[in-house]
C-alpha cells in the first residue's frame, strides 16, 4: 500500500480524561515496528466495557486513550518479521491475545494468554511506546487494540485472520461481545442438551449467551432483565421465559428456584452488578449447578457471599472472551457465521457513521441499543 512505512493522519475518538465525552480528532498513527501490524479499521462495535473506560472505572487504563475493542478491518501494512497476515487480509484485532508461548497458551484448557491486560498494562505496545499522537501529545493504546481509530497498530499475536468473504460491519462483534457470551455457554459452562439455563442481563453479551445456550441444546432458557424492552429480542434468539426481577416481591433467586424445582443447571451473570452476581450464584442448583460470571464490577469493588452456597456442590466460574483461544478459534467462528449456524446480526440495532460515536454511547446508556456499529 502507498501508505506503508509512513505516518498516517486519520480520525480517532480520543478520551482525554475520565468522565468526559469522546472527542473525534485527527491523530497521527506511526508505522508498525517489528512484530506489529497496522490495520485499517472498517467497523467497530460499542461494548459496555468502553463505557467503563470513559467513566475511569476500568482497571489499568491510562489517559488520554483511544478506546474501542470490538472491531474488524483490513491489514494496511506489516512490520518486520510478521508472517501470519499480509496487507489486504481481513482481520479482527484481539483484546485477549494468543502469544502461543506462555503456559496458558500452551495449556489446551486455557485461553487466558499471560499477555492479557489483566496481567500487564496494555496502554503502550510491548516495546513500551505508543503509535498514536494528537496535537503533539502521546495518546495511549487500549488493550493493544484501540478500534475507535481509523488505523490502529497491534502486535501480531493480537490479530486473527478471517475469511475474505466476512462482512466486517457484522463480524466486528466477534472481537468481544458475541464471542464472550456465546463462548461462556459453549466453552465455559459447557451447557448440556436438555438442561435449564438462566441469563441475567440481556445486553449484547447476555443475548449472545442465550444464543450459545440454544446452540448447546438447552431445553429451557430463562432470560432475566430489569428492562422489559429486551425481552422480544431474547425470545427471538431462543429464550423460553423472560422475567423482570422488579415484577416480584421475593428475591429473583427464589423465583427461579420455584420455576425450576431446585434451581437451574447453569446461570450466567452478564450485568456487572454485585446483587445479580449473588442472585445468579444462588439461582443454580445447590448440588450440581454451574454459575458463570461474565460481568465485571467497577474497579475496586468487592462482593461477599455465604460459603454455604458453594459447600453443597455448586461450581462458580469466570470466563474471559468466552474461553476461545482467539487466534485459532475466531476464524472458525466466522466460518460458522458464514455457514449461517447462528445469526449474530440480530444483535446489531444501530449502524452509525463514526462521527456519531457519542450518540452510540447515549443509546447504550439509555438501554435503547443492543449493539451500535460505527462505520469509518
Ligand atoms: N438485573 C437484571 N438485569 C440487569 C440488572 C439487574 N439488576 N441491571 C442491569 N441489567 C441489564 C440491563 O438492563 C441491560 O440490558 C444488561 O443488564 C446489560 O447490558 P449492556 O448492553 O449494558 O452491556 P453488554 O451486554 O454490552 O456488557 C455487559 C457486561 C456485563 C459483559 C459488561 O458490562 C462487563 O462487565 N464487561 C466486563 C467483562 C468482560 O471482560 N467482558 C468482555 C470484554 S468487554
Ligand atoms: Zn467488550
Ligand atoms: Zn500467551
- Order of H and E elements: EEEHEEHEEEEHHEHEHEHEHEHEHEHE
| Helical content (DSSP H or I, runs of 4+) | 10-25%
- Gross morphology is globular
Bound molecules: dephospho coenzyme A, zinc ion
Determine the strand fraction and express it as a percent band: 15-25%
Task: Output the radius of gyration.
Answer: 20 Å
Distance between the termini: 19 Å
Number of helices: 11
Count of individual beta strands = 17
Mean pLDDT: 96
Which stretches are low in confidence, meaning pLDDT under 50 for 5 or more residues running?
Answer: none
- SSE-based structural type: alpha/beta
**Biggest β-sheet: count, sense, barrel?**
7 strands, mixed
Domain Enoyl reductase (ER): 19-374
GO molecular function: all-trans-retinol dehydrogenase (NAD+) activity; zinc ion binding
Organism: Corvus moneduloides (New Caledonian crow)
InterPro entries: ADH-like_C (IPR013149), ADH-like_N (IPR013154), ADH_Zn_CS (IPR002328), ER (IPR020843), GroES-like_sf (IPR011032), NAD(P)-bd_dom_sf (IPR036291)
